[in-house]
Amino acid sequence: MTKERIRKVYGRRQGRPLRGDRQEALDVIYPKLELTTAQLKQDSSLNPRTLFDNVGRIEFEIGFGNGEFLRNNMLNHPDTGFIGAEPFVNGVSSFLKSIKDDGHDNIRVFMDDAIIIAKSLQDNSVDGMYVLNPDPWHKSRHHKRRMICQANLDVFSRILKSGATFIMTTDVDELAEWMCTQASHHPDFEWMAESADDWRKMPKNWYQTRYELKGKEAGRTQSYLIFKRK
Ligand SMILES: C[S@@+](CC[C@H](N)C(=O)[O-])C[C@H]1O[C@@H](n2cnc3c(N)ncnc32)[C@H](O)[C@@H]1O
């Protein structure tokens, strides 16, 4: 096992035991879409285009949960290759079950820490990235576990092409401020907001996950932080 593989993933990897159809999706579909550790490149030389037969853009979603946003994207953009990373097996199996009747040519799944696959990717190889509702880790002693931090932004900035879109969302106000500050302070990212309340506007052609809808139903405000890789 490499050093990368044993990096700790904070949060759950498995919840309730999987029921038949979800276990079946994992057994049957996952092997066709899986990004395996054998494909990882310690020297950051993995060209994501080589993971697909014929795609134009490459997009990367970190922590896709049940994969509703990812599925909507992969169906609407058949020419884009999507890489999804999610360590929670119940989320991955839910996503796989949802796409069982769809084409699978433009989707690859990494069931582990997104940073492992991000570190493996080539420089300037990703056209768009999403970190939607990452775990908030409310207590200040846990802030170092947050997905958005300078070290991870360094990795994202390396793999993103110049001009690529980087979208982060959350319905936790303090986390929104944290993510916005982290990205604004990073020299390679530029916030695309043009007016003070741009962050409240749902981006065009957006797809709301159950998680996002639940937050809104509970009266929380979703922040949409749209950055560009300079
Ligand atoms: C609150 S959920 C949001 C799920 C989904 N993005 C949505 O908006 O519906 C956060 C997700 O991030 C995942 N996650 C946590 N640490 C991660 C990591 N290191 N790499 C990839 N995903 C991670 C969790 O397993 C969880 O599914």
Q: C-alpha Rg, in Å?
A: 17 Å
- The assigned structural class equals alpha/beta
User: Could you tell me the number of beta strands?
Assistant: 7
Name the ligand types.
Answer: S-adenosylmethionine
What is the CATH topology classification name of the largest domain? Rossmann fold
Residue runs with pLDDT of under 50 for 5 or more positions: 1-6
Strand content: 15-25%
**Fraction in helix:** 25-40%
What is the CATH H-level superfamily of the largest domain? Vaccinia Virus protein VP39
Mean pLDDT: 94
Domain count: the total is 2
Span from first to last CA? 36 Å
Instruction: Please summarize the sheet with the most strands.
Output: 7 strands, mixed
Summarize the helix and strand pattern as letters: HHEHEHEHEHEHEHE
CATH top level class name of the largest domain: Alpha Beta
Strand and helix map with partners:
Elements lengths: L19 H9 L1 H4 L24 E5 L5 H9 L4 E5 L3 H10 L8 E4 L3 H7 L5 E7 L17 H10 E11 L2 H13 L3 E3 L18 H8 L5 E7 L1
Parallel strand pairs: 1-2, 1-4, 2-3, 4-5
Antiparallel strand pairs: 5-7, 6-7
Helix pairs in contact: 1-4
The structure holds S-adenosylmethionine (SAM).
Structure description:
Helix 4 links the parallel strand 2 (81-85) and strand 3. Helices cover 30% and strands 18% of the residues. Strands 3-2-1-4-5-7-6 form a 7-stranded mixed β-sheet, sandwiched between helices. The chain folds into 2 domains: 16-33 and 58-120, 3-Layer(aba) Sandwich (Rossmann fold), CATH 3.40.50; 129-189 and 208-230, Vaccinia Virus protein VP39 (Rossmann fold). The N and C termini lie far apart (36 Å). It has helices at 20-28, 30-33, 68-76, 89-98, 114-120, 150-159, 173-185, 210-217, and strands at 58-62, 81-85, 107-110, 126-132, 160-170, 189-191, 223-229. By secondary structure, it is an alpha/beta fold. The longest helix has 13 residues, at 173-185. Helix 1 packs across helix 4 (89-98). The chain has 8 helices and 7 strands, in the order H-H-E-H-E-H-E-H-E-H-E-H-E-H-E. Bound molecules: S-adenosylmethionine.
